[in-house]
Each structure stands twice: as C-alpha cells, then as structure tokens.
Amino acid sequence: MDQAKWTAVDEYLCGTLVPADPALDSALAASAQAGLPAINVSPNQGMLLQLIARIHGARRILEIGTLGGYSTIWLARALPADGSLTTLEVNPDYAALAGKNLERAGLTARVTVRVGDAASSLTALAAEQVAPFDLIFIDANKDGCPAYLTGALALSRPGTVIICDNVVREGRVAQAGSRDADVTGVRRYFEMAAADPRLTTTAIQTVGSKGWDGFAISIVSG
Ligand code: DHB
Ligand code: MG
User: Fold this and answer.
1) What is the Å distance from ligand 1's center to 206 Cα?
2) What is the DSSP string of 17-83?
3) Domains in the chain with CATH codes
4) In this predicted model, what pLDDT tens digit does every residue of 189-202 receive, in sequence order?
5) Which residue out of 49, 72, 142 has the highest number of ligand 1 atoms within 8 Å of its CB and is therefore the one to mutate?
6) Does 63 contact ligand 1 (Cβ within 6 A)?
7) pTM, entire model
8) What does the CA dihedral 27, 75, 164, 193 come to, rounded to 10 degrees?
9) pLDDT tens digits for 16-34?
10) How far are the Cα atoms of 97, 133, 158 from residue 123, in angstroms, in the given order?
C-alpha cells in the first residue's frame, strides 16, 4: 500500500482546489472533539458530492448516515434557496452534533436531521408520501446497504441519482466467500443494482487520505 503517497496527493489536491471553509473545518473539529469516528468523506470527496448535486440540479436530497454532518454540509450547499435535504442518523448524539454543525454553517432551514434506524425512517418517509428525492447518498452501516437501496428506490423517480459510499473496502469487496457483514452487504447491494432493470450503475475505486475504497453511482430510469 502507498498510503503516504495517496495522502500527500490528497493534501496537494485539497490544498490547491478546496478553499478553507470555517463551517466545514469546525464541523470536523467538533466531530473529533466529541470522539466520532473519523470516517467522514475527505474534502475533495465532499466537493465531488457537491459537484454531482449541482450538475444534476438536485433540489431534494436524501442522505442515509449523517455522522457529524460533514458531507451533509457539502451536499446542502449545492441546493438552491428553496431546496431541502433530509439526513438520517441512528445515533442521537451524532444527530445532535450534526445539528450544531449545520447551524454554524447556516443550513438549519434547509436541512432536517431525522433520528432513528435508517431502514425504519425510509419506510416512514415512504408512508408519509414525501415527494421523490433527486439525489440519494447512502453512507451508513454497510451491512444495511441492501435495505437502504430498497428504501431509496421507493423514494426515487426516473432520473434520481443514487450514490453509495465505501463499496470497495480495501479490495475486500472482491472476496466472494467473505463472511464480513459489511462486505456481504455491499456485494448484495451490487447484485441488487445489477439485477434491477430500473438502475444503471457503475462503481469506481478510489485511493486517497481515506485509504483504498470506492463509490457506486446509479441513475433510476422509468
Ligand atoms: C466506514 C464507513 C464509512 O462511511 C466510511 O466512509 C469509511 C469507513 C466504516 O464503517 O468502516
Ligand atoms: Mg462513508
């Protein structure tokens, strides 16, 4: 592994292309201070999410897995003034911290943090008949990925973009016999995506400050 090189390149890219931002910086600092795991997306990944949301013209975004709200801030900043983002978090302490981080970023009006098990929240959102989302970012417990894809599809329309984080897991995703629940969850996600005629999906491996991982991206058709 060339982790030191990957990190050096990410530091170069982020230092060159990603402007320092007090709200994002303090969200990370507050998350570290509170002892949250440092599994937030990297700055250049956050900016990629924001770019995809802007390219897509997303007005309604759903995030599954809030953590401290770092990626939430990146995504919410892609929204037009009348846009909205709903983010699902099972841990009430994480959700409270994310709420503070979003407040510092001036995003409280556009973002709703919904506390609870994400699968249940997805079912509840469907029962509430909320309008479909334009972009859905899945970034929670990886063994839940299959259920989250099902829930995401129920909240989609033709044209919805679904992104799933951490689908390579340092290459472990290629281990067909794996008993790691995270790996089997991601593999099942891929099987479901490949078998679903509504979805066109690809996945890309990434290296960087967060190691060797990757993301999947799908578009929903009619
Ligand atoms: C893990 C989860 C993440 O969302 C991530 O970006 C990296 C790692 C994890 O559960 O290990
Ligand atoms: Mg992730």
Assistant:
1) 14
2) HS---HHHHHHHHHHHHTT--S-SPPHHHHHHHHHHHHHHT-SEEEEE--TTSHHHHHHHTTS-TT-
3) 3-220 (3.40.50.150)
4) 999 999 999 999 99
5) 142
6) no
7) 0.98
8) 160
9) 999 999 999 999 999 999 9
10) 25, 14, 20
